[in-house]
Amino acid sequence: MRNKVILVSSNQLGKGDEVLGETILETFFTILKQRDEFPIAIFCMNSGVLTTTEDSLVSVHLKELQDKGVPVLVCKTCADHYGIENRLSVGKISGMGEFIELAAKYEVLTIS
Fold first, then answer.
1. Which residues pair with 5 in a beta bridge?
2. Which helix (H) or strand (E) holds 61?
3. pLDDT at 112
4. Are the C-beta atoms of residues 98 and 74 closer than 8 Å to each other?
5. Over the stretch 72-109, which tens digit does the pLDDT of each residue have?
6. Cβ contact 49:79 at 8 Å
7. How confident is the model at residue 1 (pLDDT cuts 50, 70, 90)?
8. How far apart are CA 72 and CA 66, in angstroms?
9. Residue 20 CB contacts under 8 Å (≥ 6 apart), including other chains
10. CB of 76 within 8 A of CB of 57?
């Protein structure tokens, strides 16, 4: 995962059953945080910003990655749209400009 930015564009992984998709996304981050190498950053946009609130089990894993030095960035436009800016349990509000800068330097792995 070194030299990669993870783009989380949904609060679930894959299409189909929502509960299954949320479980799969949680599993992804559970395994990711156990690795020796971490991504450069995690950028959450669209419904992916919902993973940064206490309502999502994924937020626990994102918090652990953040504590290990991985920046968790939350799209401001998306946070405003979902009305969650004051409900973040992990991450910091960011903008598309910062994501574009990261994407210009590193490979982007999109989780959707």
1. 41, 108
2. helix 58-67
3. 87
4. no
5. 999 999 999 999 999 999 999 999 999 999 999 999 99
6. yes
7. confident
8. 6
9. 12, 14
10. no
- Amino acid (1-letter code) at residue 12: Q
**Position 90, amino acid:** V
Distance CA 105, CA 93 (A): 20
Distance, CA of 81 to CA of 106 (rounded, Å): 27
Contacts of 97 (CB under 8 A, 6+ apart): none
What does CATH list as the number for 4-111?
Answer: 3.40.1260.10
Task: List the structure tokens of 47.
Answer: 């419904």
Please give the structure tokens belonging to residue 49. Answer: 């910003």
- What is the residue extent of each domain of the chain? 4-111
Query: Which residue intervals of the chain are DSSP H helices?
Result: 18-32, 58-67, 76-82, 96-105
What would the pLDDT profile of 46-64 be if each residue is shown by its tens digit?
999 999 999 999 999 999 9
